Amino acid sequence: MGNLFRNSVVLFDLDKLNSEIAALDEEQNREGFWNDQKSALEVVNRLNDAKSKVQGYTTIKNDYDELSLLLDDPDSKTPDMRELIEGMEKELSKKIKELRVDLLFRGEYDHFNCTLDIHPGAGGTEANDWADMLFRMYNRYAESHHFKWQVLSYEQGEEAGLKSATVKISGKNVYGLLKGEKGVHRLVRISPFDSNARRHTSFASVNVIPEFGKISDVEIDPKDLKVDTFRSGGAGGQNVNKVSSAVRITHLPTGLVAQCQDERSQHRNKEKAMSVLKARLLDQRRAAEEAKAGQNRRDLAGNGDRSQKIRTYNYPQNRITDHRINYTAYNLSGVMEGDLGDMLNALRQHDLAQRLELELN
User: Fold this and answer.
1) Which CATH number covers residue 181?
2) What is the DSSP string of 209-242?
């Protein structure tokens, strides 16, 4: 029990958390704090999260100290005391594990919501269908965790699947959970579209961007934008094929594109598309700054190259392999139904180990 507690302490910087709480308290009390409600709510959420971690740590430490005293008691060997101690150990172990899970989310943006983009690679119908399978997988995952799933845009493939999709996912630690999905996903299967039942390999790329709180800081020259309107269709938007309410915005200097079709109002779709575009610009700038700074260590998933092949889904062998951490499991059918927990946890554990190695050195 002592080792479990001490290992958790290594991950916990109490002084840093208390300093963060003091700074956030000060921010919350400044005049005009609620003028920008979105930014204010982010501060409040960060403050509550930091206080929750400190409270959890304090409870664990008090329970641990109490248990240590009981173990030193001469009567600790009696049956009644043993039963009491074992119950306390079990409860303490549960609290420590919960705190350790919470501490896995140590990235700057881990607590943010995110937008998730899915695009098929080359390969026509095969790739389009694979992209749609990933779309469904993430939808199942979001539903199982009671996250809010909002389809901002969805373009259907000509024969099957999708050409592109953008989804906003909201919930606790969503970006921290899903940032490891950024990259190229490879599928190996016997194609249902091939009359000769041959094995095919398909690719789809996934991008995950945190929902930055200060996108208002991003200034864009209207001359740099190309705005197109079109009729909504597909999995997003209820105003399908009635009016041209969907909006696509292209940032000409970078080629970045954002579109939204889930609202009935063209104005609201334009607002949402602009928010997505600004978040993509911020994410692009962040990656460029980190590359220029030449970091000793890049975040395993959050700053990964979206063109990197990160994972293979092999249907003939019911096998899924994450190539970054040599993770292999034989539960592909479950994963495609949204059971991503073990794999995402393995990614976070690996990422945290790298963070701790840098911090301790």
Assistant:
1) 3.30.70.1660
2) EE--TTGGG----GGGEEEEEE-B-TTS-SSBTT
> Closest Cα partner for 208 from 251, 167, 249?
167
Is the distance from CB of 127 to CB of 202 less than 8 angstroms?
Answer: yes
- Residue in the structure block whose two tokens are 């937008």: 115
Whether 56 and 92 share a structural domain:
yes
Answer for the pair 42, 50: CB distance below 8 angstroms, yes or no: no
How do residues 232-285 score in pLDDT, each as one tens digit? Answer: 665 544 444 455 788 999 999 999 999 898 777 888 898 888 888 888 888 888
Number of domains observed in the structure of the chain = 3
How far is the C-alpha of 180 from the C-alpha of 43, rounded, in Å? 25
Torsion of CA 140, 142, 147, 149, to 10 degrees: -80
Task: Give me the residues paired with residue 151 across strands.
Answer: 167
pTM: 0.74
**Whole-Å CA distances, 112 to 25, 108, 224:** 20, 9, 28
94 SS3 class: helix
84's CB contacts (< 8 A; 6+ apart) are 70
Q: What is the pLDDT of residues 123-181, one digit of tens each?
A: 889 999 999 999 999 999 999 999 999 999 999 988 889 999 999 999 988 999 999 99
Helical packing angle, 37-72 and 14-28, nearest 10° = 150
> Rounded CA gap, 271 and 106, in Å?
31
CB 175 within 8 A of CB 113: yes
335 in a domain, yes or no?
A: yes
The two three-digit tokens of residue 302, written as one number:
């959050």
27's tokens = 């921010």
Q: Are the CB atoms for 138 and 338 separated by under 8 Å?
A: yes
Distance CA 155, CA 171 (A): 25
Domain that holds residue 10: 2-103
Q: Verify that 335 and 207 share a domain, yes or no.
A: yes
